[in-house]
Amino acid sequence: MSNAGRTPLVEMRDISISFGGIKAVDHVSIDLYPGEVVGLLGHNGAGKSTLIKVLAGAYQADHGEVLINGEKAEIRNPRDARAYNIETIYQTLALADNLDAGANLFLGRELMSRGLVNDAKMEAETRKIMGRLNPNFRKFNVPVKALSGGQRQSVAIARAVYFNAKILIMDEPTAALGPHETQMVAELIQELKAQGLGIFLIEHDIHNVMKLCDRASVMKNGQLVGTVNVNEVTDDDILGMIILGKKPAHLAA
Amino acid sequence: MTDTGQAVAAPAPKRSIIDTLELDVRLLGMLVAFAAIAIVFTIWTGGTFVSPRNVFNISVQAVPVAVMACGMVFVIVARHIDLSVGSMLAMCSAVMAMSQAYWLPSALGLEYGSPVILVVTILIGFAVGTGMGALTGWLVGYQTIPSFIVTLGGLFVWRNINWYTTNGQSVSLTDPNLLMFGGTEGVLGAPISMTLGALAAAAAVFALYSARKNKLSHGFVVKPAWAEGAMMGIVAGAILLFVTWLSRYPVPEAKLKRLFQARGEVMPEGYTAMHGLPISVIILIVVAVSMTLIARRSRFGRYIFATGGNPDAAELSGINTRALTVKIFALMGFLCALAGLIAQARLQSHGNDIGMLEELRVIAAAVIGGTALAGGVGTIYGAVLGALIMQSLQSGMAMVGVDTPFQNVVVGLVLVIAVWVDIIYRKRMGLAK
């Protein structure tokens, strides 16, 4: 698939952000097209999560700009990001453990009736989306801390998918999952991609990257090593980029 | 794609009666503890403990702490603490006392007893309380100073500005209207109380009914009709019993005579009147019901609990947790003003030491009521029940002649034991609670 001539869904240009003198992200530019999965790779501390949190509104970039559909976007907080249909599945899942699945799914966007939170309606909607994502999910009325890792993950995924995201950020969505659940997430990513969503996928497992991603952007020490088309490289090429911080010889022009 | 994702009814395990009624086990535990205290003291005092007069007194005495404890639940659920509530109460009380006794009469040129003074005094008190709370909230939320420090500072600051405001003197409440918030001076009498009780019982039954209807409309499993009926019966019965009981507490004859004299009438022979519900208790009920509604059914309440459960998640969900902190503490300050109004009216004067050490009782009431200091967990009814349990213990011990130091020893022990039992209970239940 060639992206030539198309407007990227997301373009992050020359983004820098530092914390107390440490450059966590150092002049990084990445982009994402509709119906595409872009993997973000790198060691722990390479700056992937920080970069993505700029897009999600959790951090403010010191330098650089974000374009959505070719237009400059002001994303000052997570609410702004949601207004651009950017949804994020955080590595930590960002669930309020003391609330049930429905309350978490609609957190910040509660369904109201006559000025009051309508829990029954939210539970009904949660049952619907869970019926699609994870039909085995049954625990709708208990705090999410009583759920297994996979169940918690599906609540976090449901939250991102429910609100018609156009841009989805997934920060290691399969890290806490068993093989069966990982397969379910992989299928979901394919399905969402087919619907035309753009997905940033932070992932450590090279096999998942090769299987799921169209392109891969590799970061090291806050800097972008390079972005490659996954079907033009081997696992070893990508591993080389992660470890050595250099583009493979046959691609480095 | 499944349409509803409806849970298929699993082969139902045998459900205990507690499960069937969907009772909160922790609430049940508190009610049992409360009942045990009542029974022990009733036997010990030969029945005086549950006399209408004593039930009335306990209710009235528990109100200021219970009102503040409702606010403290929100503060603690959001992972904060407020050590300044006793001092804020004193500060509000000082401002209100000075307003009605000196400032307003001279500034507005009004007579004592004018309803304008009453209204303006209360508004000033509420504004001062809310303002103090909002300031605390701003320092905690926007300046990120730990609430423990800010409110520890507030404990000193407000207590002593209160002192300065009144020159360290007690201020008598000269405005007779203010006294109606205190208890015995502001009661509704038996007929009105009984009517209100009946209305409240009907409202409670209706609330349970409409909650059930809402669940049914979405096709959820509800508890069996008999269990719902039993819950309705218990709740309505408890309300009616309480109101009836207070409506059996007669107003002393001498006081009735005075009241008639004040109106220039002569009391008819054999005339009696009952206290019924005190206005302060009605205020507490209104506060508790509203706060419960806020906690469970409003966005504000939902965000407080979400923030307490996981502040980062709340922030990432687009909740403005800083503004939320200001609101929580402002609400706490408002409730301190309300409690101050009630406390000074009950004592019929503002004393320098009003509300002294109340912050500890308020926190204890919330904690005995099941509010976890780690945040995210707590109920309003628990806090009110906690305040009632502490007041009953104290009242009962005073009646059977336990010395004051030992009364406080027992209250302290109860606090620790309540939390201990809760921890053991939660360990037994595993992660489920």
UniProtKB/TrEMBL annotation, chain A:
Domain (ABC transporter): residue spans on this chain: 10-246
Top-level taxon of origin: Bacteria
Main location (coarse class): membrane
Keyword terms, alphabetized: ATP-binding, Cell membrane, Membrane, Nucleotide-binding, Repeat, Sugar transport, Translocase, Transport
Any Pfam family matching the protein: ABC_tran
Official protein name in the record: Sugar ABC transporter ATP-binding protein
GO MF term (any one): ATP hydrolysis activity
Membrane topology designation: Peripheral membrane protein
TrEMBL record, chain B:
Recorded superkingdom: Bacteria
One example GO MF annotation: transmembrane transporter activity
GO cellular component annotations of the record: plasma membrane
Protein topology in the membrane: Multi-pass membrane protein
Location in or out of the cell: Cell membrane
Keywords linked to the UniProt accession: Cell inner membrane, Cell membrane, Membrane, Sugar transport, Transmembrane, Transmembrane helix, Transport
Main location: membrane
Transmembrane segments: 25-46, 58-78, 85-104, 116-140, 147-166, 186-209, 230-251, 271-295, 324-343, 363-388, 409-425
Biological role stated in the UniProt entry: Part of the binding-protein-dependent transport system for D-xylose. Probably responsible for the translocation of the substrate across the membrane.
Identification of the protein by name: Xylose transport system permease protein XylH
Organism (species): Fuscibacter oryzae
